[in-house]
């Protein structure tokens, strides 16, 4: 999911407040398709997966994402929610919403490294952790994979097929670690993820060439 532009967002328009008048979908449709309660429950589940507080504000914005202010702390993070975007992507159900916000929580967990990570690698890492959550908690990933699989990709986000591959790999890693009695920790998962990124570097370069016409990622300063 793309990070939203904090400058276009009204902090007074919080999902946790009473029914907003700025959302273009009627209250009846909201309650049927994607009620606020479902969204907040999904965010809580995603935060719980990483052992994070779910106290970060949730606001309506132009797109789904997370805003990381001071990257040395999680305390000023803000979740952004856009029901129309999720509906247009075909996202539905609490499992899929949980995986959407697991992806966003992974951005929170990685924010201290975000200035030195290739943006495609960071997005694939977040997709991977969504897969890990699904594998650990027996969530249905079909809808989430279908939604992301249809995306074209761009400068900061890989193409959908590559993202689906990393989601599935995350699910498989979680199931394998549990079966072998390996602690499913953030650090242990990162080891598997980094190995997979290295192994899949030819595929990543091929996909980047198809999307951007350039097989190489940007150059980043050393951490």
What report would you give on this structure?
- This protein has 223 residues and is mainly alpha-helical.
- The chain has nine helices and three strands; from the N terminus they run ααβββααααααα.
- It has a three-stranded mixed β-sheet with strand order 1-3-2, with helices on one face.
- Helix 2 (36-50) crosses helix 4 (94-110).
- The longest helix is centred in the last third of the chain and has 21 residues, at 160-180.
Q: What is the arithmetic mean of pLDDT?
A: 86
Report the β-strand fraction as a percent range. under 5%
Helix content: 40-55%
Shape: globular
**CA distance, first residue to last residue:** 25 Å
What gyration radius follows from the Cα positions, in whole Å?
Answer: 17 Å
Strand order of the largest sheet: 1-3-2
Instruction: Give the tally of β-strands.
Output: 3
How do the helices and strands follow one another from N- to C-terminus? HHEEEHHHHHHH
What labels describe this entry?
53% helix; globular; mainly alpha; 223 residues; disordered N terminus; three-stranded mixed β-sheet; 3 strands; 9 helices; single chain
Write a brief structural summary.
The chain is mainly α.
Write the layout of secondary structure elements.
Elements (H helix, E strand, L loop, with lengths): L26 H7 L2 H15 L7 E3 L4 E3 L10 E4 L1 H7 L4 H17 L8 H18 L5 H8 L10 H21 L5 H14 L1 H12 L11
């Amino acid at each position: 999911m793309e990070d939203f532009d904090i400058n276009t967002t009204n902090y007074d328009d919080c999902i946790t407040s009473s029914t907003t008048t700025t959302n273009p979908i009627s209250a009846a449709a909201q309650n049927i398709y994607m009620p606020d309660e479902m969204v907040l429950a999904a965010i809580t589940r995603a935060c719980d997966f990483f052992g994070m507080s779910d106290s970060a504000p949730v606001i309506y914005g132009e797109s789904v994402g997370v805003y990381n202010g001071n990257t040395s702390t999680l305390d000023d993070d803000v979740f952004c929610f856009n029901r129309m975007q999720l509906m247009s992507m075909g996202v539905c159900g609490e499992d899929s919403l949980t995986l959407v916000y697991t992806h966003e929580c992974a951005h929170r967990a990685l924010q201290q490294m975000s200035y030195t990570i290739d943006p495609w690698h960071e997005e694939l890492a977040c997709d991977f952790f969504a897969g890990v959550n699904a594998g650990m908690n027996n969530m249905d990933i079909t809808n989430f994979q279908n939604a992301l699989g249809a995306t074209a990709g761009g400068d900061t986000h890989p193409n959908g097929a590559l993202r689906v591959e990393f989601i599935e790999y995350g699910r498989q890693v979680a199931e394998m670690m549990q079966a072998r009695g390996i602690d499913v920790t953030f650090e242990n998962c990162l080891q598997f993820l980094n190995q997979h990124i290295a192994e899949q570097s030819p595929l990543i370069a091929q996909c980047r060439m198809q999307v951007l016409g350039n097989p190489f990622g940007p150059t980043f300063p050393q951490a």
